[in-house]
Amino acid sequence: MEESAQQSSTTVQVGNRLTLEIADLAFGGEGVARWQELVIFIPFVVPGETVEAEIVEVKKNFARAKLIQILSAAPERVTPKCSYFGECGGCQYQHIDYAAQIRLKHKQITDLFQRVGGFPAAMIDPVVPCPQPYGYRNRLMVRSQWNKPKQMLNIGFLRADSRLVVDIEECQIAEPALNDQIRHVRANPPPRGGLKVVIRIPPDDWEVPKDSFFQNNFHLLPELVKGVRACVADSGVRHLIDMYCGVGFFGIEVADLVESFIGVEVDKLAVQAGRKNLASRSITNGQILLARAEDELPTLVKRFEPDQTAVVLDPPRTGCPPESMRLLREAGPRQIIYVSCHPATLARDLKILCDQDRYQLRRVTPFDMFPQTQHVECVSDLRRS
């Protein structure tokens, strides 16, 4: 690293411009560089690059900078397809070749599991790539915000650097039909700023309310289902408890592998839809309960013989409450399958489950359900020791 003319040799201050070498890519999408002993995070860079960056924030142990120019580009750098990339906060990796994205995500997950949970790297399978890295998203939230300087209504997504809305006409990672809906929203704008419009493409053969959860990538969804089914089939359990079940997706997809299953969901409309999904498939060995997963768990774990039971967890990004993890650990179902889109909270929760060797982590299989972004879905298979 070299020191710019504006930078002293002893301190880093906001506004300083530095020449930095990018050593790594942190979970979340920011590049990692070092200036003396200070870690500096820079977005939209690639490991191996030399860049000029301007310091925008300085903390005790790290700083943040914005990219000014690429001095030496990495071979994995590509031209983003989206003209809003870098301004819109929806994507972090469009500047990186897709094969390199997959490798970098695997390293990030491995690092997180080692650092947060103490799990060995060998537990992490290679990331399963998406067959369609662009044009895959089936659900988006479009926001509106009044742009006072331009006297216009911005309709689009949050910026990468603030809570302001960037005005967009299309999204490169969205399904083509969603871009048609974006154009419809723009032609028929909300009456004022501050409103959100959820647009989505409903999945075939599934009842899903407008605001209820469903996986947002139809193209890789069959592989995700195959991964969960393989876990259940391998354990040979007879019963399944599907926590945070939404419209009953995982329970229904593995219904033929077990004698009975119960789904639990707090979203009333999702529960109603889930029951319709059961009926439309003539599935009679399962039911869906309306309840908070955390409240119902103590009763459910006593309902089936632990040695013949698997529990599927697919919680929000924040993960599961620690008390739920401790209760599961004590109840001791034969298998726990934890599906998560946030590897850090996943590693945290798995550490609780594996405490005192109560459970053993068999494997973690990442699925790239969110190409061009920092996010990745993981399926973890745990067995009672």
Describe, in plain words, how this protein is organized in 3D.
- This protein is α/β, with parallel strands linked by helices and 385 residues long.
- It folds into three domains: 17-72, Nucleic acid-binding proteins (OB fold (Dihydrolipoamide Acetyltransferase, E2P)), CATH 2.40.50.140; 139-200, Beta Barrel (OB fold (Dihydrolipoamide Acetyltransferase, E2P)); 214-384, Rossmann fold, CATH 3.40.50.
- The protein is 24% helix and 28% strand.
- The chain is built from eight helices and 17 strands.
- It has helices at 98-117, 176-187, 221-235, 249-253, 268-280, 293-300, 322-331, 343-353; strands at residues 17-21, 24-25, 30-35, 38-43, 50-58, 62-72, 139-147, 152-158, 165-167, 196-200, 239-243, 260-265, 286-290, 309-313, 335-340, 359-367, 377-384.
- Helix 4 links the parallel strand 11 and strand 12 (260-265).
- Helix 7 (322-331) packs across helix 8 (343-353).
- It is globular.
Helicity, in percent?
10-25%
Structural Rg: 23 Å
- Topology as a string of helices (H) and strands (E): EEEEEEHEEEHEHEHEHEHEHEHEE
Instruction: Write down the oligomeric state.
Output: single chain
H/I helix tally: 8
Termini separation comes to 49 Å
Shape: globular
CATH architecture annotation of the largest domain: 3-Layer(aba) Sandwich
What's the structural blueprint in terms of helices and strands?
Layout: E1 17-21, E2 24-25, E3 30-35, E4 38-43, E5 50-58, E6 62-72, H1 98-117, E7 139-147, E8 152-158, E9 165-167, H2 176-187, E10 196-200, H3 221-235, E11 239-243, H4 249-253, E12 260-265, H5 268-280, E13 286-290, H6 293-300, E14 309-313, H7 322-331, E15 335-340, H8 343-353, E16 359-367, E17 377-384
Parallel strand pairs: 4-6, 11-12, 11-14, 12-13, 14-15
Antiparallel strand pairs: 1-5, 2-3, 3-4, 5-6, 7-8, 7-10, 8-9, 15-17, 16-17
